Amino acid sequence: MTKAFEVVYLHPERVTFERKGDTLSMTLHSDASPEDAPEETSANIIHYPRVALRACFPVSDSTEFLSVRDATEETIPELGIIEDWSQLQPGSRDAVAAELGLHYFVPEIVQVFTIKEELGFLYWTVETDKGHKAFVMRNSVIHYAREVAPGHWLLIDVNEARYEIPDVAALDAHSQKLVQQFLYL
Amino acid sequence: MDDLDEPATIPVIVKPDFVAQLPPAVKTTLQAEGVRPDAVTLAVQSDLGPDGRFGEQWLLMDSHDLWVIERHNGTANLRHKFPLDKIEDAKVERCVGNGLMQVTVDRQPHVLLHYSNELTDRFGRVAHYLHARAEYGDDVPVPDPAADSHTCLMCGRSLVDTSSKVCPNCIQRGKLFRRLIDLARPYWGKMGLIVIMLVAGVLVDLLPPYLTRILIDDVLRVGGGAGGDPTLLPWLVGGLLGIQVVRVLLTIVTNWMTINVSTRFTSHIRDQLFAHLKKLSVDYFDKNQVGRLMTRINQDTEELQGLVSQMTTFTLNILLVVGIGVVLFSMAPSLGLYVLIPTPFVVAAAYFYYRYMQPHFRRFWVARWRLNAMLNTFLSGVRVVKAFAQEDEEERRYHNRNMTLLNSRLQVDLAWSKFFPLISFAFGAGGLIIWYAGGRAVLADTITLGTLMAFLSYLGMFYGPLSNLTHISQALNRFLTISQRTFELLDEAPEKQPAQPVRTARLGGKIEFDKVTFGYDPYYPVIRDVSFTVEPGEMIGIVGHSGAGKTTLVNLLCRFYEVTRGAIRIDGVDIRDLSMEEIRQQIGIVLQTPFLFHGTLAENIAYGRPAATRRDIIQAAKAANAHGFITQLPEGYDTIVGEGGAGLSGGERQRISIARAILHNPRILILDEATSSVDTDTERQIQEALNELVKGRTTIAIAHRLSTLYNANRIIVINRGKLEEQGPPKQLMDNKGSFYHLVQMQTQLASLDGVAAV
Fold this sequence. Notes:
The complex is a heterodimer.
Chain A: E1 15-20, E2 23-29, E3 45-48, E4 51-55, E5 64-70, E6 78-84, H1 90-103, E7 109-118, E8 121-128, E9 131-138, H2 141-144, E10 145-149, E11 152-156, E12 162-165, H3 173-183
Antiparallel strand pairs in A: 1-2, 2-3, 4-5, 5-6, 7-8, 8-9, 10-11, 11-12
Chain B: H1 2-5, E1 12-13, H2 18-21, H3 24-32, E2 42-48, E3 54-61, E4 65-72, E5 75-83, E6 87-94, E7 98-105, E8 108-116, H4 120-136, H5 173-183, H6 188-220, H7 232-277, H8 282-287, H9 290-331, H10 333-340, H11 343-380, H12 382-387, H13 391-443, H14 449-469, H15 472-491, E9 511-518, E10 527-534, E11 539-543, H16 550-557, E12 565-570, E13 573-574, H17 580-586, E14 587-590, E15 599-600, H18 601-605, H19 614-623, H20 627-632, E16 640-641, H21 650-664, E17 668-672, H22 680-694, E18 698-702, E19 714-719, E20 722-727, H23 729-735, H24 738-750, H25 753-756
Parallel strand pairs in B: 11-18, 11-19, 14-17, 17-18
Antiparallel strand pairs in B: 1-2, 2-3, 3-4, 4-5, 6-7, 7-8, 9-10, 9-12, 12-13, 15-16, 19-20
């Protein structure tokens, strides 16, 4: 048994991910598992029917340090960490990218059409990389808008949905003006 | 653009007319599956597509099957189909910014679809239904996924902010005002008086220029005709002096009354807010952070006070503008028109000024807040900063924020210095026009010099109030926002009380948990199907890993939260039928981190029974093993503790809270990790005090250190919200079940002799 404080790293070439519908499964070739893996697994292959993925650094870097977890267990225990998942085989890589895209649903705002302030709420209509969206956030910049890196903003709406502006300076002039006016940049 | 303005509502269809509402492509797909659309019993739409973009997916059910159909660009395709009878379980899971729904079929997990956060309730209900159906069979009624979800009480659209009852679109400004005026009912008389005084003030203000006109035209007779009437001079000057005196008095009284009314009005609101706050359930306080509630009660009411005063200023200015306007036009209609020429410029300049300045000010405030937050972090973490030698890094961070603050301050001042001269120019230009046009009229003898001078004086009083009125809408908006937030809190439903509470003379102390299921969020249960009974006078120990749900059980017993399913009974009566007061009067709690209020030790001990005598207090302290150290303190029982008070050690504070519980003399005693944050010696002292306290009471003790439970009648082991084991400690040790393993683990860790004795 692995000790609780030991980090298990999964070798990107020894794991395969497969996505059926929205369900992500993983097959682990036992060489990739810790050395004291049970020998009984005849083919040295363990299949996990549903795994969950958690990025260790979802905001600053989403391709490094990916925690793979067994979603069939109630506590969702960690099976291991993939240090750089861009090194996975192409099929697995696509499956991982799709799963991460769904788990971390944080649309990036590419254009701001309108921002309206009314009775303590900001009403935004925006175009994101994931489609058109209208959302509402409380008009408290201090609590619901965070500058995670210079020029990189994270907005949290009333439903706790998140939106990112990766670089305010990269927006068009109209959007920039609105963002600056309402986020007090 | 209209559809861009409002967040679109995502449909959920359960009514019989949904056949018509289903998109045609989805209907066609269903028909291709051999299903008649009118046989569908449930149709719920998700707003996310399988590609991880905003999109459209439908979850549909008839009495046999479940389908997930995706619709994209007008075409629909079937993603999943499962026979309902084969679904063994269903649940929703939280992701980031969205959630997913999973079903288990043939012991294989299948993720059906993702949906955005606003739809959590809907899919949670569907999952709950599928779970219940798998467990109890197909006679479980199909839910209405939209039932009591957060929809606006007025328009039925889904609410953007679930903490309010009405969506901002529907807040009727008029209604809000009526409520405010209603709330101010005790001050109506004074408010009426203020308005009368304002009118009087305006009338007084209008007099001096009129007298000046008489002075110039009839007394001094500058440039025209024979000598004036010198006898009028002292009267006129005296009149002007009198008017000024009256004006000063009026201003003092009006200001005093305005301040008086606005202050009293807001403190009245504050009282009402607090009175309401104490009626709200613990659940409400979980959902609303302390900081936000503090803002609502302190800052909002303070700002409200300022705004009430500001409203008086607006009223005054409206009266002035109207009064002076009337006078100007009646004095010289032709000149009156000239006054209007610069008016649009004044209004526009003032309007742009507020629009332009406001963001600069807010930016400055935010920058100042960020700088303060940084300083606060540094000061409270100064040891850590020094220990890790990060002083320079902190200095750099502080400097950066300070620079931001500097820049925003410069921008404020720059904007101010640009606009102030411009506005003055607009005002001055108005005067110049009048000088020119009025001068010509005087030369042509159509008006007198006195009229022109009076006109110019009135003009000086006209543009100021006019420019002030340009930001009336902003102030009004702010006023309404804050009033709305205040009413939001006042409208929050208080804790549910039974209509006719069952009266019990004195609780015996028998507790029954009957198949209790509960989740702080109903879709993520943390207590599942827990049943156990505690006989009167029995002591029960609840053990389990942290996060297993031990404290939740206690919270449910105190009725801080309501059970989702099942029932809790005290002496055979469902606690929902007991009055809240009665339950809590009979329950005493000793928490892990004791809370002391600001006040003396005696007051803290007597918190649950303020009428207690000194004799009782000392008796309780003695029983709690606290009397010894209290009398050693310089101020004894009069020592002030709590915020800003004397520092007591953790063990001492704990013994005070035990004394409080002893004096409260409850039938049921709850010890929630009462000794887990103190050292072994203090623990022994507290344990002694507790042994005294539990005598003759029904006791539920939650403990991390199992040694403290050696004299419990029974032990209940909770694991991930489920009851895993129960029985006398000895029997559980013999069974070698989970309790045995917990004890083994602790013995290995610390080799506690108390446990070995079990």
